[in-house]
Amino acid sequence: MKVISKTDNSQLATVYIAQNSAGKMVEFVESIQPPFKLSEKWVLIVSTLFGCPVDCTFCDAGGSYKGRLTAEEILFQIDYPVRLRFPDGKIGTEKFKVQFSRMGEPSFNPAVIDVLEKLPSLYTWKEFIPSLSTIAPYGTDKFFDQLLHIKKELYPKTFQFQYSIHSTSTKQRDQLMPVKKWDFRKMARYGEKLYSDGGKKVTLNFAVSKESIIDQNNLLKYFSPEIFLVKLTPVNPTFKARKNRIESWISQEDQFPGNLPERIREAGYETIISIGELEENLIGSNCGQFLQAHLKSCEKLPDAYSYQIK
Q1: 276 band by pLDDT with thresholds 50, 70 and 90
Q2: Can you give the three-state secondary structure of 107-136, one letter per residue?
Q3: Angle between helices 71-85 and 111-122 (to 10 degrees)
Q4: So what's the pLDDT on residue 245?
Q5: Which residues contact 107 (CB under 8 A, 6 or more apart)?
C-alpha cells in the first residue's frame, strides 16, 4: 500500500487515498475533534473494503465494490498516520480511537478481527478506544461471535460498538440500506451480550433526514436504556443523498423535528447529538463521503468536497 494523495486541514482532519499493488484505491482519515486538542484525543477512521456492496442510498462509498482489504492493508491505514505523528509507536494522546467505519461494512471482512487482535502488540497508549459501526447484515454471525470474544478478552471497558439503524421503520431501513439485516430483536440480544461485562453502552445511530421515521416507543420494545444509548447525526451532503433526494434535518442552525431529542431522552435514553464541524464536509472527512466520487464526477456540491487534492 502507498498513499497517493490527500486533502486536509491539519488542525481538523486529513483524508488520505492509498493504493495497493493491484491498483485498488481506498481512503482513510485522521481527525482531531474540536474542542479536543491532539494531546487529548486523536481519531483514525479506516476502511475495511474496497468500496461497499451494500450501496446505502445516502453514502458515496457504495456501488463499486472490489473486494476485502487484507489485515496488512487495514493496518497500513493505522500505521501510516501513527508513524507520522508518533514515530516510536508510543501514542502521545490521552485518548486514541480507531474507527472501523470508513469504506465498507466491517462485518463482511474477517481481517478486522485479526487487526483487533494485533493492535495491542504494535503500539503503546494511555487509553485505546476501538470502535466498530455496523448495519448488522444477515449471515455475519460468525464475525460477531468472534468480535464478542475479542471485546471481552482485550477491550472489556473501552470497546465502542454502534448499530447504524437510521429508522425505526423496517420498510424505511430496507430502503436506506438495501440488504437483508438482523431484526431489532436479534440486534438487541447481541448488544446485551456485548454489554454483559460492562464498558461502554451500545450506540443506536440515526442519520436524521426530513423523511426519517424515529419512534422512541418502538425502540423501547427492544432496546433497554440501561444498555443502549441513542446518537443523532446529520445526513452528510453526498452525491448519493442528492441523487436520492435525501435531505438532512440537522444542521447547526436547524431545530430537530418534533422535539426528537427530548422525546428520546424522556424515554430514558442517554442521547448524543453529533453534528461535528461543517468544514469536515468540505474536506470530505465525514462518514460516508467517499472522496473518489468527487474525483470522478464533473458535478459540484456547494457544501461538500471543496478542498484541493494534493
Answers
A1: low
A2: HHCCHHHHHHHHHHHHCECCCEEEEEEECC
A3: 30
A4: 75
A5: 134, 136, 137, 140, 143, 144
> Three-state DSSP class for 77?
helix
Which residues does residue 2 pair with via DSSP β-bridges, in sequence order? 19
Are 95 and 157 spatial neighbours (Cβ–Cβ below 8 Å)?
Answer: no
Q: d(Cα 48, Cα 42) in Å, to the nearest integer?
A: 20
Q: Rounded to an integer, what distance in angstroms lies between the CA atom of residue 297 and that of residue 239?
A: 9
How far is 286 from 273, CA to CA, in rounded Å? 15
Q: Which of 6-20, 87-101, 261-275, 287-301 is predicted with the least confidence, judged by mean pLDDT?
A: 287-301
The phi, psi pair for 304, rounded to 5°, reads -160, 155
Please report the pLDDT score of residue 287 as a whole number: 52
Residue 203: strand, helix, or coil:
strand
Residue 47: predicted pLDDT:
95
What are the distances in angstroms from CA 206 to CA 42, 49, 215, 220? 24, 22, 11, 15
pLDDT tens digit sequence for 51-107 = 888 877 777 776 678 899 999 999 999 999 999 999 999 999 999 999 998 889 999
Backbone angles phi, psi at 109, to 5 degrees: -130, 105
Q: What confidence tens digit (pLDDT) does each residue in 123-163 have?
A: 999 999 999 999 999 999 999 999 999 999 999 999 999 99
State how far the Cα of 72 lies from the Cα of 131, in Å rounded to an integer. 18
Strand partners, 97: 43, 129
Q: Which CATH code is given to the segment(s) 2-295? A: 3.20.20.70
Report domain extents, the chain: 2-295
Tell me how far CA of residue 6 lies from CA of 30, 58, 72, 101, in angstroms. Answer: 11, 23, 20, 18
Alpha helix (H) ranges present in the chain? 71-85, 111-122, 141-154, 170-176, 184-194, 216-220, 239-243, 260-266, 279-283, 291-295
